[in-house]
Amino acid sequence: MLFHPKYVPMIVAGSKKVARRVWKRNLVKEGGIYQCKTRMFDSRWFAKIRVTRVWMQKLGEITETEAIADGHSSLDEFKASWMKFYGKWNPEQEMTVIDFEVVEVSSEWQSFL
């Protein structure tokens, strides 16, 4: 799975435990183990995660607690980040929510910062 470099320390520390994506179809499975990368075609990874849950949620239903678990300091920060990446905030838009746990951290994870 791809992550912005700013999330690397949070994922490694275990404070970011969820990712949200707008996918046409599900690209991960519960129980699957995936490499975390910061670039699409890079063979290097900074961590491996196990997906513990995959579910759908409307953008407007996200709570403050869920925004924090996603690596943001508040719901407002999550909204600003979402709009920067996706261009708009549509409360009815459905997103895939991926809950995960870190199972392995690369010894070179700091090189991804």
Condensed summary:
The chain has 113 residues and is α+β, with helices and mostly antiparallel strands. It has three helices and four strands.
Overview of the structural elements:
The structure is a single chain. By secondary structure, the chain is of the alpha+beta class. The protein has a single domain (about 5-110), classed as Roll (Sulfate adenylyltransferase), CATH 3.10.400.10. It contains three helices and four strands, in the order αβββααβ. The chain has helices spanning about 10-15, 65-70, 75-85; strands at about 20, 35, 45-60, 95-105. Strands 1-4-3-2 form a four-stranded antiparallel β-sheet, with no helix packed on it. It is globular, with a radius of gyration of 14 Å. The model has no long low-confidence stretch (mean pLDDT about 95).
User: How far apart are the first and last residues' alpha carbons, in Å?
Assistant: 16 Å
By helix and strand content, what is the structural category?
alpha+beta
Q: Give the helix proportion (percent range).
A: 10-25%
In CATH terms, what is the architecture?
Answer: Roll
SSE blueprint:
Blueprint: H1 8-13, E1 18-21, E2 33-36, E3 47-58, H2 64-69, H3 75-86, E4 94-105
Antiparallel strand pairs: 1-4, 2-3, 3-4
For this entry, give a set of tags.
113 residues, Sulfate adenylyltransferase, 28% strand, alpha+beta, four-stranded antiparallel β-sheet
